[in-house]
Design brief:
The protein has 134 residues and is an alpha+beta fold. Helix content is 37%, strand content 16%. The chain has one domain.
């Protein structure tokens, strides 16, 4: 990670909080993962098709719903305040992200988590059960 300390630790803690809220890992992606030269810190949560549809409905092409914009903006602003980094947060459909940003094409993705063995509760899955601990 090329964001430096203590910002890196704050980013990891923020990732844990996002996991607790959404039941899905947040990932640090983009230029700030590998380079010391970046303008913002991209953070994404990847959602499967059902999770995406449950949260945002169906988006087509350039159509963007207000809920998506509000959540991404709010989480970006909160991430900036929490970490001190210029966070650019977004949700992405997992299949499209895996296809478009494959590691074989030089894209990097790093899970943001520090509580691998934590007993903190996590958001329930769509099946109504509890997700596995990070």
């Amino acid at each position: 990670m090329s964001v430096g300390q203590p910002a890196y630790m704050k980013l990891m803690i923020w990732g844990d909080v996002l996991y607790r809220a959404f039941g899905a890992h947040a990932y640090h992606v983009g230029s700030s993962v590998m380079s010391k030269e970046w303008r913002d810190v991209d953070v994404v949560i990847l959602l499967d098709e059902k999770e995406w549809a449950d949260l945002f409905g169906t988006l087509h092409g350039n159509e963007v719903e207000a809920r998506y914009n509000v959540l991404c903006t709010a989480l970006s602003v909160w991430g900036r305040e929490f970490t001190g980094l210029p966070i650019d947060f977004k949700f992405q459909p997992r299949d499209r992200a895996n296809e478009k940003y494959a590691s074989k094409d030089g894209h990097h993705r790093s899970a943001l988590t520090i509580s691998r063995y934590s007993d903190w509760p996590v958001a329930p899955t769509h099946e109504g059960g509890e997700n596995e601990k990070v």
